[in-house]
């Protein structure tokens, strides 16, 4: 494994990851499985449930997003939900077996008074005995510390794509802005959930660049969501070419090899994937999913389908 202790040298370069992605499929999967089994029980899948606690009307211009105010997606914007309503959803998710409850808000960054409401949600989720995760946009170091004080376990903030392709997708915040938020989260001693999206018109090199950027963060994220774009009508990426499922499996394998101790989450896009493609993702080292009928604003794979798939594959959820 390419390792360096010099902070400025990435642990994994784009070329290193591109070389992994180009391996013969059996070799790549064998390597990924070897790494996976050294760190995890390959029959166990972590499950997280998502809830959009503040939907739509977002000032950012993320080209993939149903919630960007500038994208004409017909989505109705709503205000921050009440704490009790959110906790009722968390209780329902717990009853269905979710270990972690993830709350997302369509903000560029949270206002301090809204952050207090989110902290009350985090405290309530923790009191249920569940892990908590929030994704609220950019954070300042004091905001990250406030979330830590409320007991937050994970903060989700994605790099989304390679540094080189990023400007094609988002112009209202920079890659460095994202890295700064991730550092604030790290410094507050909150676990990092950070991944990206594929199927946005990027090339193979950009996919390698995304994985290399994630694996070369000062510490790899504890949780790495790999999303396949859910193409939403009215967004600039509505007609983007979907990723070949076998290329998606390769990407999961590369994430597993380069981030051996991280949970790799098969995230958005499962609804459109066959059972066989999902099974290959689990073989390639994916060991987490979003479970529940909706993601944030779009449908997720149905829970009855997921249960049937886990039963067929003999996978246990946790
Ligand atoms: N507004 C906050 C932010 O962007 O930092 C938090 C919520 S945002 C919806 C969380 C992540 O969801 C995005 O960074 C992106 O990676 C993912 N996402 C959003 N829309 C998606 C889509 N249509 N398909 C796949 N992933 C998507
Ligand atoms: C992540 O990487 N994927 C989730 C979560 N983090 C917040 C969001 C997926 C959103 C899919 C599109 C939607 O439902 O609006
Ligand atoms: Fe806003 Fe997040 Fe959607 Fe970007 S991804 S438009 S920041 S809700």
Structural overview:
With 318 residues, the chain is of the alpha/beta class. Strands 1, 2, 3, 4, 5, 6, 7, 8, 9 and 10 form a 10-stranded parallel beta sheet that branches. Helix 4 links the parallel strand 2 and strand 3. Helix 4 runs parallel beside helix 5. The chain starts with 13 loop residues before the first helix and ends with a strand. The mean pLDDT is 95. Iron/sulfur cluster binds next to loops.
- Poorly predicted runs: none
- State the end-to-end distance: 30 Å
Helix segment count? 10
Computed structural class = alpha/beta
Nearest-angstrom radius of gyration?
18 Å
What do the pLDDT scores average to?
A: 95
Instruction: Estimate what percentage of residues fall within beta strands.
Output: 5-15%
Q: Which cofactors or ions or other ligands sit in this model?
A: S-adenosylmethionine, 6-(5-methyl-2-OXO-imidazolidin-4-yl)-hexanoic acid, iron/sulfur cluster
Identify the overall geometry. globular
């Amino acid at each position: 494994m390419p390792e360096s202790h010099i902070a400025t040298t990435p642990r994994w370069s784009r070329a290193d990851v591109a070389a992994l992605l180009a391996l013969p499929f059996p070799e790549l999967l064998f390597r990924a499985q070897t790494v996976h089994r050294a760190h995890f029980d390959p029959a166990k899948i972590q499950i997280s449930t998502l809830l959009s606690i503040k939907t739509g009307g977002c000032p950012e211009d993320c080209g993939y997003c149903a919630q960007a105010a500038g994208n004409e997606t017909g989505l109705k914007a709503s205000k921050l939900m009440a704490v009790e309503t959110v906790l009722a959803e968390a209780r329902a998710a717990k009853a269905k077996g979710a270990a972690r409850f993830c709350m997302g808000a369509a903000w560029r960054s949270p206002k301090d008074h809204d952050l207090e409401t989110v902290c009350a949600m985090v405290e309530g989720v923790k009191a249920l005995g569940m892990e908590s995760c929030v994704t609220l946009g950019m954070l300042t170091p004091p905001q990250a510390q406030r979330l830590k004080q409320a007991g937050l376990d994970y903060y989700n903030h994605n790099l989304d794509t390679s540094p080189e392709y990023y400007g094609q997708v988002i112009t209202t915040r920079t890659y460095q802005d994202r890295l700064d938020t991730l550092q604030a989260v790290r410094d507050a001693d909150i676990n990092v959930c950070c991944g990206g999206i594929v199927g946005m018109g990027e090339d193979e090199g950009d996919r390698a660049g995304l994985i290399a950027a994630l694996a070369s963060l000062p510490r790899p994220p504890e949780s790495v969501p790999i999303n396949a774009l859910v193409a939403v009508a009215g967004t600039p990426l509505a007609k983007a070419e979907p990723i070949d499922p076998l290329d998606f499996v390769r990407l999961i394998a590369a994430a597993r090899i380069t981030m051996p101790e991280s949970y790799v989450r098969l995230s958005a896009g499962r609804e459109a994937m066959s059972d066989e493609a999902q099974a290959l993702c689990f073989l390639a080292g994916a060991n987490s999913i979003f479970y529940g009928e909706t993601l944030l604003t779009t449908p997720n794979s149905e829970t009855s389908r997921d249960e049937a798939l886990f039963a067929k594959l003999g996978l246990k959820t946790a």
